[in-house]
Amino acid sequence: MATAAIDAPHLAAYAAVPEETIITLLQAPTAELVQSFLASVSTKAREFEQVKAQNLRLDVELENVKRTADAKTKAQKATIEKGLAENASLRDSLHKEG
Asked: Structure pTM?
């Protein structure tokens, strides 16, 4: 059988079942063991999909935060540049008067 190609401890940890169950499933599978294992894998698959969806939502939220921050930064930079230009203009007019 292909027991050597399967990492039973890793699979047991992933499926949240005892390692002995995986070994028994590989050596002498029963309908109950297969059903139990598939139920565990199904639960993990649902959890994975939920985490994947949450990750997508967080990625979208992060991108929105980045865009908002970039827009605020550009607006503040424009305000600073306008203030510097006004300051330079006032200095020039003051220098010309004095």
From this structure: 0.65
